[in-house]
Amino acid sequence: xxxxxxxxxxxxxxxxxxxxxxxxxxxxxxxxxxxxxxxxxxxxxxxxxxxxxxxxxxxxxxxxxxxxxxxxxxxxxxxxxxxxxxxxxxxxxxxxxxxxxxxxxxx
Length: 107
Known about the structure:
Number of strands: 0
Structural class: mainly alpha
Oligomer: single chain
């Protein structure tokens, strides 16, 4: 009995499914230029078949990352505008200066 995948390249298998192509390593096996050209054509066809799905996923991922960046950027501006501790320190400093002036000009 032969090892799995070592049989006929168009072996239908025992599961009753359609023919399965045998995996070929072009670096180890001597292939003719016609066979290499056919492999390139098949790879190009497979790549073009999956291109719309990949493009859609890339667009969705880009929009998601962009939305996250804008959300962080907006939250940062919002939180910085809410920081009032410097305003409170300035108010306390003004009050302290006013008390110091009052003491200096007093009796």
